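Entry 14. Structure prediction run on the chain below.
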Amino acid sequence: MNRPSLLASTLVLLALLPGSPALAAAPSPVLGGLDGLYPELDALYRDLHQTPELSFQEEKTAAKLAERLRKLGFEVTTGVGVHGVVALLRNGKGPTVMLRTDLDGLPMEEKTGVAYTSRSLATNDAGQSVPVMHACGHDVHMTVWLGTATLLSRNKNRWSGTLMLVGQPAEEVGAGARKMLADGLFTRFPKPDFAVALHNTATAPSGRIEAVSGYALANVDSVDITLYGKGGHGAYPHTTVDPVVMAARTVLALQTLVSREKHPLEPAVVTVGSIHGGTKHNIIPDEVRLQLTVRSYKPEVRKALLEGIERVAKAEALASNAPRPPDVAVTEGTPATYNDPALTRRLMDAVKRVLGEQSVGEAQPVMGGEDFSEYGRAGVPSVMLWLGTVEPQRFEQARARGETLPSLHSSGFAPDRERTLRTGVTTLTTAALELLGKR
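Output returned:
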């Protein structure tokens, strides 16, 4: 491949990759440095992919990133919220812009077949040895984040303000952002004027960026319910209070919270994902346990659903003449991610000028959750952009055939590496320059 000089930066290379759309002209020569940087980023990506760590165990991952950031001239603090990294690059007057990446992998065995497949093992909280994989693409996030940091640190004459890089642990369990905030993220360090993150998506081709204005990801709550009965012989049910029947009625009644109590135009999900009770065919147990995932967007809908779940469980127990009320506990919770509409428009317009109109589009909200939401709730205008990962020709073939491709959290998820990384660095750098760039 011939390498044209300055104006033929990484954007031209992106356009030359098979399946990529044509790209608009680069508004800044900052991006021209990506060509020379890419081999280093590719090596970093492969290393991160092969060495994932579980949530709140990201010590080695954080150390790798911190070391590279120190060499770039950042003021680096580690151990924020267990294994969080905060790096500051102060460059005169201007806004403070936070770029966030997540660090953790998932307890899954990788089955992608790529040459750099993860073989890592870790010990989980239950003391079990489990395989670990970056099945949500946090290795992409970290590589893009460091690539952006490198380009901006080498071109300080092109922007003004403070660049704040946050490497967050434990996104997969929805706890890392809260830990970092509780450890003084916005008090020990500058509170940013803006927060930006990229996240992989397996529902868009590589080379494409998408975003949702407003609610982009859901409130996600885990609810545990224990229903208490009076056990006995299955041949003599009249001498018992059957918690299995109680649980069955509860599962059905819970669905009316969505179908009959919520406004039809307000999205919500109440799913009973687990039900456990009993040990033998002819034994009526003393109790049955339910595990629920509950999803919504608006705070008032979230509140109504959680209150309704407790009300329904107690009512069914009362109707069954249960010996005691049920235990209902919300065990995990991640608030909805809200993309600031004005900031979303501003950044998407900036990215369009670089990638071109055809490579930037609007996405649909999803019922997944992300604790990036915590930074917006702390008062920082925030945007999460979606980064396509599927090789474009493969994406079009699958769409034509009605085929479902491996999703995030799949053992077969393998991003179209080079195009995804280059597009991610181009996008995140463009977003940072839009907010920090000299006028």
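The two ends are 35 Å apart (CA to CA).
Filed with the rest of this week's runs.
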